[in-house]
Amino acid sequence: MMMTSILEVEHVQKTYKGSTLGIKDVSFTIPNGSIVGFIGENGAGKSTTMGTIIGTLRKDGGTIRIFGEEMDLNQVAFKEEIGVVFDTMQLPGDLTVDKLGNVFQQLYKRWDQQAFSDYIDFFSLPQHKKIKGFSRGMSMKLSVSVALSHHARLLILDEATAGLDPGGRDDVLAALREFVQDQKRGILLSSHITSDIEKIADSLVFIKGGEVLLEVEKFALLDHYGIVQCAPDQYEQLEKSIVVAYRKTGEGFDVLVSNKRSIPSSMKPKHVSIDDITLLLMRGEKG
Ligand SMILES: Nc1ncnc2c1ncn2[C@@H]1O[C@H](COP(=O)(O)OP(=O)(O)OP(=O)(O)O)[C@@H](O)[C@H]1O
């Protein structure tokens, strides 16, 4: 059977002990060879979702299929095939990069020392400096190098470009793009830097209050979606099936529509960026 998805998340829920929060209903897919941008405000549920995928958190409900199979955390093979970068990642501080390779060689059956050395060169990281002396951006690049060097098929990156300078962000994005080139791998990337997501993602998943609001291919979002500013009577003329979200303004409504070509000609859609859409989805009401 031809496998078309690297990851399928279906109706996943997680409640933290003693709290009603966490995630309520999260579903989305990472198709082969694609990068999915995960967008949501602080506390929306991105890290919780990622924790249930990599198995650091136990989900309370729903299904997660990785490479077509239901995830079984007891299978070490799954762990080998998932590369992870979290912004609070701890690497052994007393080691230098050249020693770190030996450690990961023991940890990962498919550790690729050559690939790791190439990434260290590519990111211009020092070989002989103790890791605890690395800046935040350098540590991030090192974590990305590790995640890319054990032949994982799925990468989970939580804020992996945070703290990097623009050149460093571009280098990380280039390395990620190359990683999915063979169409057999996939990446889930959360970031508050929407310009990074706009540059690199093939599709986007928007999450708010622990629920997925919208899962959409980037080209469709930029080509077909639009934001229209309309007076209350114009709002009534809109076909409700294309209203994704709306927000009341002083004079009427800002409305995110899924097909800007099917709005009445008296209304002109604004040219939209992912930032505009994110703001309307996060701060507005669901259509
Ligand atoms: N360890 C925890 N115990 C209790 N509640 C938690 C815990 N971790 C997260 N939460 C709650 O779960 C919800 C989702 O949080 P999560 O960390 O997944 O959000 P996020 O989208 O990753 O946010 P950010 O952008 O700030 O990283 C929030 O309401 C948060 O308060």
From TrEMBL:
UniProt keyword list: ATP-binding, Nucleotide-binding, Transport
PROSITE patterns assigned: ABC_TRANSPORTER_2 (PS50893)
Domain ABC transporter: residue ranges: 7-234
Gene3D superfamilies according to UniProt: P-loop containing nucleotide triphosphate hydrolases
GO molecular function terms noted in the UniProt entry: ATP binding
Keyword Coiled coil belongs to the record: no
Name of the protein described by the UniProt record: ABC transporter ATP-binding protein
